[in-house]
């Protein structure tokens, strides 16, 4: 199953949120959707789920237009912090989703709720920000649709709940693989989960490739400050930090011979992301 955007453009007044975006999603894969605030991430997700319509371009699932295609839309699960659930309790919301999505696993969802210690009798508006995210997350993990879109899924969660969410995400994906598109600003927390990375910048697709290939574009060296500085001379250093007499530098470019006195590690996705979108103006 393939979900594709073709020359997708969306404007809000004079602001161009997305500018001729082309990309395709196929299951199963965990993809990261990254970008600075205002890059167009949420707009893209809302377009791909028919919350809003594009000004230009189209979206297809297996070459059929997604617009007013109820059968196709049942293959996608997406809830956001702005989703309207009225005064429904967590239990009523779980019951509703079980009736709306054929593969929704109600018993699994209730088991997730117990692990997060979510009160099923509380109405959605009365939940804290963190527990609203917990409820949306367990609904998403229980939907078992071919495409699962997660927009800042851990918003407001504490560290314990975030770790539990990532654990359950991997468990769910392992048991029933699907195409998961995860939009988040917490890049350091999720980079180990991602198989593919899509980076939006100023409404355009800047990067769409495997995480492995993307991270092979650079590396880090660590050691004594003077030795690291000597090695980095003439190279493109995209970030560094020093503690005491030791220094770590992130380098963009092809790996060259490193002295035995220095340690070499991989480049982090966050370091590379900051470098790629660091310009204040669109490229």
List the helices and strands and how they pair.
Elements: E1 2-12, E2 15-26, E3 29-34, H1 41-47, E4 56-61, E5 64-65, H2 70-73, E6 76-79, H3 90-100, H4 106-115, H5 129-143, E7 147-151, H6 159-175, E8 179-183, H7 187-190, E9 196-201, E10 204-210, H8 211-215, E11 218-224, H9 225-232, E12 236-243, E13 246-252, E14 263-266, H10 269-276
Helix pairs in contact: 4-5, 5-6
Give the count of structural domains.
2
Q: Under the CATH scheme, which class of the largest domain?
A: Alpha Beta
- What is the CATH homologous superfamily assignment of the largest domain? P-loop containing nucleotide triphosphate hydrolases
Computed CA radius of gyration, to the nearest angstrom: 21 Å
Low-confidence stretches: none
Query: Based on DSSP secondary structure assignment, what is the total number of beta strands?
Result: 14
Give the fraction of residues assigned to helices: 25-40%
Describe this entry's structure for a reader:
By secondary structure, the protein is of the alpha/beta class. It has 2 domains: 210 residues, P-loop containing nucleotide triphosphate hydrolases (Rossmann fold); 49 residues. It has a 6-stranded mixed beta sheet, with helices on both faces. A 4-stranded antiparallel beta sheet has the order 2-1-4-5, with helices on one face. Strands 12-13-11-14 form a 4-stranded antiparallel beta sheet. A hairpin with a 2-residue loop joins β4 and β5. The protein starts with a strand and ends in a 7-residue tail after the last helix. The model has no long low-confidence stretch (mean pLDDT 91).
